[in-house]
Amino acid sequence: MSLIVQKFGGTSVGNIERIRSIAGRVLDAQQQGNRIVLVVSAMSGETNRLIEMACQINPIPFSKEYDLLISSGEQVSVGLVTLALNKEAKKRNFIREDQTIARGFLGHQIGIRTDNVSSKARIQAIDTSLLQKTISVGMIPVIAGFQGIDSENNITTLGRGGSDTSAVAIAAALKADDCEIYTDVDGVYTTDPRLCKKARKINKISYEEMMELASLGAKVLQIRSVELAAKYEISLHVRSSFNSSEGTRVISKKGLGAKMEQILVSGIAADAAQVKFTLQNLPNEPRTTAQVFSSLSESSIVVDVIIQDIPSPGALSLSFSVGSADFLKVKQILMKLRATHYPHLVIQEESNLAKVSIVGVGMQHHPGVASKMFSLLAQADIKIKLISTSEIKISCLILESQMKNAIECLHEGFGLDQAVD
Ligand code: ADP
Ligand code: MG
């Protein structure tokens, strides 16, 4: 008997009809002899609706109460999915009229303990005793994704896409045999299938590549979920809740085989809504860069693609990009730095940018991948504003209006339009 954690994303619980349909599917999986644990997201659009309301009151609403507010969408899904499971199980005569087959839980009810970073909390521990007890009597726990509780009993949330991480953390804590991520596409594709019609489904991908794709904008999985899966060697199966076709297995590199390593580029990720900041007239002193970036990291701002330049002997320039959601927060921090430390600091910003990245474990053994990327973008008349590289990825910051074009020309140029198998 296998223990399977199944996570259903926003579209999969998007309306009553979808909820009924997944309830049937979950009971089918249980009937096949599996023990099932469910993790659910808020119904699609709900978290955005809550965020918009909060922003109408305060444009930078981040706080404990903000997390309390935006975690409420999952509570609705837990309630509806649990009701649907109990109803369907009675209809199928799996249980009597006075019995239940599913039980709903919010994060704090099963002790999903996190740190205290509002809106970007990380899971520290999960108390599995109540879950184990529920599973052992043949019941299906239905757990609210995206949320936890900190050491002072505040409700915390795990960042957008956080239900993926809830599912993997629960799978790790329960030592589950499989973790299935049900979503609105058939699996992980070579690039976002909504942005590029020629995107192809990938059958298997390594944790490392998936981590890069996720961190570079492929929102099909939250990056933390892939990090956790890699750490605990949990095999992830990303698949569609609309059909039963095989999805994508996210597994360790050794499970991929040598053939996969010969592929230079496995996928392309794009992240719209990026902003570039350029700081000029900073003092050229050893501690300047550290001070600027530690001020940002203290506010949990993830900075990307950094360039440092010394235009004249005494002056230092820094350029970096951040997601536009962090724009106001970053601006505030930089203005504070100017007021307290750097009176001559000139802050420039450029918005409406996008980051386009190519990812592949194969590229670490092949020179010339970067120059090919730059040539392909040049041929398409796309100007690069910032570049950053790691062993298995190259990212370029470009105009957002050119993002779709960039994805298409890189997808074709690196041979991803053609099937590999
Ligand atoms: P869920 O609500 O199920 O968590 P998400 O919207 O978070 O779903 O993630 C699924 C979406 O991720 C897809 O609809 C697709 O547009 C997007 N996406 C981005 N990059 C990729 C990729 N490489 N492969 C598959 N989907 C991708
Ligand atoms: Mg998601």
Description:
The chain is an alpha/beta fold and 421 residues long. It has helices spanning 16-31, 46-57, 64-70, 72-91, 129-136, 162-173, 207-215, 223-231, 258-261, 288-298, 327-340, 369-379, 403-413; strands spanning 3-8, 35-40, 102-105, 112-114, 123-126, 140-144, 147-149, 155-157, 178-183, 204-206, 236-240, 248-251, 267-283, 304-309, 315-323, 346-359, 386-390, 393-399. The strands form four sheets. Strands 3-6-2-1-9-11-12-10 form an eight-stranded mixed beta sheet, sandwiched between helices. A hairpin with a 5-residue loop joins strand 14 (304-309) and strand 15 (315-323). Helix 6 runs parallel beside helix 8 (223-231) and helix 7 (207-215) packs antiparallel against helix 8. The model has no long low-confidence stretch (mean pLDDT 94). It binds adenosine-5'-diphosphate (ADP) and magnesium ion (MG). Magnesium ion (MG) is lined by residues 9, 161, 164, 219.
Shape: globular
Number of helices: 13
Can you summarize the main beta sheet?
Answer: 8 strands, mixed
Helical/strand content category:
alpha/beta
What is the gyration radius calculated from CA atoms?
23 Å
Bound molecules: adenosine-5'-diphosphate, magnesium ion
Taking all residues together, what is the mean pLDDT? 94
Going across the biggest sheet, name each strand in turn: 3-6-2-1-9-11-12-10
Termini separation comes to 32 Å
Uncertain spans: none
Helix content: 25-40%
β-sheet strand percentage = 25-35%
Task: Say how many strands there are.
Answer: 18
